[in-house]
Amino acid sequence: xxxxxxxxxxxxYPDLLSTYGDQGNALILAYRAAARGHAVxxxxxxxDQPIPQQGDIYLIGGGEDRPQRLAAERLRKDPGxxxxxxxxxxxLAVCAGFQLMxxxxxxxxxxxxxxxxxxxxxxxxxxxxxxxxxxxxxxxxLTVGGVGLGALTGFENHMGTTLLxxxxxxxxxxxVGNGNGAGAGxxxxxxxxxxxxxxxxxxxxxxxxxxxxxLSWADGNPAASPVDDGWHLRLRKERLAAVGA
Length: 245
What we know:
The chain is α/β, with parallel strands linked by helices. The chain has helices at 24-35, 65-77, 80-86, 96-101, 203-206, 208-219, 230-242, and strands at residues 7-12, 40-45, 57-60, 90-94, 104-107, 111-114, 121-138, 143-144, 147-148, 151-164, 172-176, 186-187, 189-191, 194-197. The strands form four sheets. A six-stranded mixed beta sheet has the order 2-1-3-4-14-13, with helices on both faces. Strands 10-7-11-12 form a four-stranded antiparallel beta sheet. Strands 5-6 form a two-stranded antiparallel ribbon. Helix 1 (24-35) packs across helix 6 (208-219). The longest helix is centred in the N-terminal third of the chain and has 13 residues, at 65-77. The radius of gyration is 16 Å and the shape is globular. The relative contact order is 0.17.
């Protein structure tokens, strides 16, 4: 581990959950954190290693059924992530990782399985496979520098349907695509410093304001990162235009 002054970004189980370039979220956060003046340490934790409890931001990505099931088994035995959230660490979870933050998820082989219960959602197998581009208007309660996050853009590929409990809000309201499942009308969820989404892309490359929101949860600085977002904004414009949004 780096010195106590470093901002630690922990990437959980890249050997199991790293679908559709989700590991790029770690690269985006590290780049923007450095621009905010932080020394940055990235810690990649394989599934046979314990999760450190002293990280500042934890990332977990998507994966297929068997890797998700294996990840759930290991996470339930390892208290590292739960203890980190108890002391206030930030979490961004994508797709299968998002499901693992909730109470339960569905496995094709074993049926309903327990997850971590860090966020009040439950996930089930849907009747429609959700594939394609998603556009969702971010929850207006989420801001960076007093400005809303705007439209969230990403790519989904899942059979899951996620239901939100009373203690969480959706990350966004869907305009294009499915998000939390066919007919749900929302994508993802957030509560405290934990956010989940079905959006790949990676999601933080397409949505730099979301990256800054996660960083603000970790460092307490609500301002946007002082970087040139020209590339990100061109990518956003291209992806939004592709679906007429």
